[in-house]
Amino acid sequence: MTLISFVVPAFRVQGYLRECLDSILGQPETDIEVIAVDDCSPDASGDIIDEYAARDQRVRSVRLPENVGLGPARNIGLDRAVGEYVWFLDGDDWLAPECLTDVAERLRVTRPDVLLVDHVRTHWNNTATRSAMAEVFPESPGSGTFRLRDRPQAMHLLHTAWNRLVRREFLVDLGLRFAPGWYEDVSFSYPVLMAARRIGVLDRVCVNYRQRRAGAITRTRGDRHFEVFPQWHRVFHLMDSWGSATEALRPAVFERMIWHYLTVLGNGQRIAPELREAFFAQITADYERWLPPGGYPVPDGVEGIKHKLVATGRWRTFSALRAASRARDAARRRARTARRTVGPVARRGARLTRDGLLREYYRAELRRPIDPTLAVYAAYWYRGYSCNPAAIYEVARRLAPGVRGVWIVRRDRVDAVPAGVEYVVAGTPAYYRVLARARWLVNNVNFPDFVRKRPEQVHVQTHHGTPVKVMGLDQQRYPIGAGRMDFAGLLRRVDRWDYSISANSFSTQMWDRAYPATYTTLEVGYPRNDRLVTAGPDEVRRLREEFGLDPDEQVVLYAPTHREHLPGYRPPFDPDRFVQALGDSGRLLMRSHYFHDRDRRPGRPKDWERVRDVSGHQRVEDLYLVADVLVTDYSSAMFDYAVLDRPIVLYTPDWEAYRLARGVYFDVTAEPPGAVAATFADLLDVFRTDAVRSDSAAKAREQFRARFCTMDDGRAAERVVRQVFLGEPGERSTHC
């Protein structure tokens, strides 16, 4: 018999589900199965489950035709489980490495009905909060088992389904199922403990309980939080049906109920102000209904006062006490802030610079009406006219002629703006004016921190590549690669987004977890790649002529990515030896951060006529179109170039170091778009032997395109313009 059946329900967890499944399947203990239940999720969760099931026989995929909710989805998984124990793990949480070894050993040795395990709350800012295990069991609980009546303090551990493994036969015999609705853990977790004859506690952290910044019900206001009441009612109805067997536990269970109600009420992110009085009244009603005849252990201190106010139904006093407590906490925060900022404020007031005057001008412009026809575009920190914003701008001129598009560029990049394109120079009064009054803000990076998005404005984040390296909040786990990144500031900028454009499902999944906020995802392909789809042979011929490339020449574009964590690093690459390997008809175009100002460097290639530095060329799409082969490493260029279905070679001399220091989302050397070379000698051999065009390279490229390029059909920009500018229904969009 399989030892553990993991039941993993999935709904809107596409950004986290891979980490969850990997944490299970990567454990040393392999006597497991995973029943992953797609609860008719509107995102890619179901596709991810199918992907894992196809490559690992321990995973079973269950796709539900309609959304049933977390509790019923767990029941469906339970019905399919065959393991001796069942572990209900949520799709956005994950296991600690190698924890399953200790869990399996404890299960095999003690055979408990229920095994409670420890957890940490893992927050979006990469901090962790320990559970109450140390307070509940100040001394080690040991490896023995017990009944709840002997250690009722076990009820003070978090009442969730995922911090306990339950013996499947015991659960089936008990007939206990998850109830529908929110707070479904309550009417499962407490009854399981009360009915168990053998409870074990493993005081090892096994679960990372993800504290999501957006999307969790604990951070969602609404009247559905009232569903906590019927869940607790089920607990007491079960106790009534079980009779004297659980009567001694009633006072402790009652105390937990009132504690839980007050916890929900006290969370300002759950109960809206206008609903709090009604919620409090229901607490009082349940207090009167379920109060044990002999009373219960009332907590000490402020918590005890809250219980007494609930017992007497004194909402006004309770509300006033809460308001006073919040005011006191706010005053303390203001005092701390004042101490930190008094110096900087004084210094800023002493020097009213030109920048200060312009910011005042910007604030004044924010009070003027929005221009309903104005769209502002920017790319790469104002470095010119390019990328996805440029593609959207061009289609908007055609489909939405009533929209006036204005670009923001740096002063030293004005010459790169095409004729007929209106622009303003960054830092000028006109720059501040358009930022303050534009109806649409379109950028492939974030606007500066001072920009305040007005309610009438629409912010479109286009991004500028499918991610290989980790991005956003995920960089917190790789401090070497993240440097001094301000993650709190990043999230303030992300909160301005209304739309996030995604090139493929993989990008959508990664953006969801890297940039958690309430924007709408437009999974439409990359607008800048439209040109790669629509460009015909005549345009390619014209571009090659402009670059001075003969039709029969083999043109290779070398475009490595930037190593933020290794300033000045250059991959080992000898242009002269490379073009020799290409043969007499080979030409090399080099585009990289590391080859700027090449002419002033010693060691310039001898055969300079066959090697050209194109780092300064404004439109990278031109370079893709003229190149016959792309050589890159971990750059997003591979995803764009794959749209052309031409050979790609990955040159990865520092893969292990890059993966460990910078962090990556997947192993490009295991799932490449073509041939892979780990050393420069290997790279030369790839071209000398023509392995670049081998059957295996072509098959790898085909699989890569099927995963990442299916949406690049030449209409991505049009889809964005129709939905964002014209308000037409979107073909592909999801809310985070």
TrEMBL record:
Belongs to the CDP-glycerol glycerophosphotransferase family. It comes from Micromonospora parva. The keyword Membrane applies. It is found in: Cell membrane. SUPFAM superfamilies: Nucleotide-diphospho-sugar transferases, UDP-Glycosyltransferase/glycogen phosphorylase. It comes from the Bacteria. Residues 5-171 form the Glycosyltransferase 2-like domain. InterPro entries: Glycerophosphate_synth, Glyco_trans_2-like, Nucleotide-diphossugar_trans, TagF_C, TagF_N, Teichoic_Acid_Biosynth. It is a peripheral membrane protein. CDD domains: Glyco_tranf_GTA_type. Its main location: membrane. The lineage of its organism: Bacteria, Bacillati, Actinomycetota, Actinomycetes, Micromonosporales. This is CDP-glycerol glycerophosphotransferase family protein. Keywords: Cell membrane, Membrane, Teichoic acid biosynthesis, Transferase.
